Amino acid sequence: MRLPHIADVAVKxxxxxxxxxxxxxxxxxxxxxxxxxxxxxxxxxxxxLLISVKPRYAEAILDGTKxxxxxxxxxxxxxxxxxxxxxxxPTRAVVGWAQLMRxxxxxxxxxxxxxxxxAAIDQTTFDAxxxxxxxxxxxxxxxxxxxxxxxxxxxxxxxxxxPPQSWRYLPRDVSHQIQATALG
Length: 184
Description:
- The structure is a single chain.
- The longest helix is centred in the N-terminal third of the chain and has 13 residues, at 5-17.
- By secondary structure, the protein is an alpha+beta fold.
- The chain is 29% helix and 30% strand.
- The chain starts with a helix and ends with a helix.
C-alpha cells in the first residue's frame, strides 16, 4: 500500500531538515531521522503510540538522559513501533518521536531494579507513581527525533486528536500529519 501524500512530504522533510535528538540510547550518537516504517511496508493496520509526558521528562527524552518511559498500563504494540511524544502543560505540544525498542514488564520493584537511572527519576517519585500497582511497564525508547517545530495542542485538535492523560493509539496517517507539521 502506498503511503498517503502527506507521508511523502514528511519523508522528504525528514531527509532534509529534521534535527535528531542529541543522543540515542544505544550508541549515544545522533539518530538517523526517519519515519518508523519505509514506504514499501504495508501500514494499513499499523498504529502509533501517542504518549503524554511532563515537559521535564520530554526534554530528558529528547536530550538522551531519559531512555525509559514508565507506565502503569501496557500498550500493545510490537517492538520498533513509532511513539509520538506529547509534552503536557505548560508546553502542550508534540515535541518529537522515538522508536519503541521493547516493553519490560514486572513488579514495580523488579522494574526499578532493571531500569536504574534510565527513567531519569528518583526512587521516591517512582514509588509514588506505582503506589498500589501490581505491575509496572518500562517502555524503552531509542532513535529519538526532536521536532523542528513543536506541534501545538490547537493543531493536534484540528487534526481530530485529543491528547491522552497517559497514552493512546493513533492511526498511522494521523501520525504522518503530525510529523509533517513538526517538520515545518
